[in-house]
Amino acid sequence: MKIGDKIKLIREKERNFNQKSIADIIGINLRSYQNIENNVSDITFNRLEQVAKALEVTTTYIINYGENKGSFSNQFNNYEGNKGTNIMHQGNDIDTIHKMYAQMLAMKDQIIESKKMNLLGY
After folding, report:
1. Contact (CB, 8 A) for 62 and 3
2. What's the pTM value of the predicted model, to 2 decimals?
3. Cα-Cα-Cα-Cα dihedral sign, residues 113, 118, 121, 122
4. Higher pLDDT residue, 68 or 20?
5. Would the pLDDT of 51 be above 70?
6. Which long-range contacts (CB under 8 A, 24 or more apart) does 107-115 make?
7. Which of 2, 10, 51, 92 falls 20 to 30 Å from 25 in CA-CA distance?
8. Which residue did the predictor score with more confidence, 75 or 110?
9. How far is CA 67 from the centre of its chain?
10. Which domains occur in the chain, in start order?
């Protein structure tokens, strides 16, 4: 299942929001939001964070939505120590862990590319 499909299912089945309300919350026009849900437009990590906040879920929840129901993940923020985000996955087989790791690496690359574009003024 693609990310847009997951966002649409969460919005319709769990949150009962319409597309216009999410588009307004994240500050884009309705057509742009529809393109995200229809997998026409690629979504940046920053935009995924905005959508997650509007849907009142985490980005991890969206990414893992509809995946292996026999496992769960827990995300918590460490505001002391290293001030990072820790994600703990339990009940996953090695293939699922590798898949999640690849997704995290892809998100990292998207974040880096987004920051580069911001620094360059694009």
Report:
1. yes
2. 0.57
3. positive
4. 20
5. yes
6. 107/45, 107/59, 110/44, 110/45, 111/45, 111/46, 114/44, 114/45, 114/46
7. 2
8. 110
9. 14
10. 3-120 (1.10.260.40)
